[in-house]
Amino acid sequence: MVTQLAAVWRFRHFLLSLVRLDLRNRYTRSALGVGWTVVQPVLMAGVFVVVFSGVLEMSPGRYVANLLLGLAVWGFVRESLVTGSGAFLAHESYIRQCLLPYALYPLRLVLGSAVHAGIALLVALAAVVFVDGHAEKLAMIPVVLPALALLLVAGWAAATLFAFAQCYFQDTRHLLDIGCQMLFFLTPIIYPPEVLVNRGFAWLARGNPVNLFLELIRTPLATGEPPDAKLYLYAAAFTAVLTAAAFAVVRRGQRSLVYQL
Fold first, then answer.
1. Torsion over CA of 165, 166, 172 and 176, rounded to 10 degrees?
2. Mean pLDDT across the chain, nearest whole number?
3. Which backbone phi and psi does 254 adopt, to 5 degrees?
4. Which of 57, 100, 130, 249 has the smallest set of CB atoms within 10 Å of its CB?
5. For residues 258 and 261, what is the distance between their CA atoms, to the nearest angstrom?
6. CA distance 212 to 205
7. What is the spatial distance between Cα 134 and Cα 132, in angstroms, rounded to a whole number?
């Protein structure tokens, strides 16, 4: 694992240039450019506020702030999984011609997803201040930074695993699309976790790794209270296991992967 991380670090400048290229190409000839990253969650939040804020008996301001924070985290998770699953197929020409570390290709896509998620998170923080009216909650930003770092690593590891799966089983991305749609509604993003608990599905909230990161990232910024310290241990353990699995798959499959492209 250390050897592979060192190899990725050695090509870090090349990696960052690819990420910049992706961001530039994504918004070429677009009227709003990166503004679309802001428009999408805001429009989604507007729809959900109209439908759910009254049903859940939450003030629109508080609901908007919670929802935008949740959508920022979810957007990164979904894009890392779905887009990351095509990392090796999208870089077939690089893989056949260059001896670059395989873990670099999913990281390229995950870092692009992280940029968009970061912009969405800034929009959510603006909602906390100007819509919910609680600027003091921004004091929790240092508290969520370790969770954001763990989420980035976990997203990279998951993208690597699914990228290998996609090469051997071409329907992986289609299954991920369906799975993410289901997971979105099974994760307390558009509703508070208490909805699951009150219906006897507390186990579903506890066993959902996305909800774990929501508790570490959204809850402090939405409530102004730091999360339980043991949640950091759970997130670190989950990320460590996922990362170890990803690097084990890379080490085992990197020699035969080219034959699956």
1. 90
2. 86
3. -65, -25
4. 57
5. 5
6. 8
7. 6
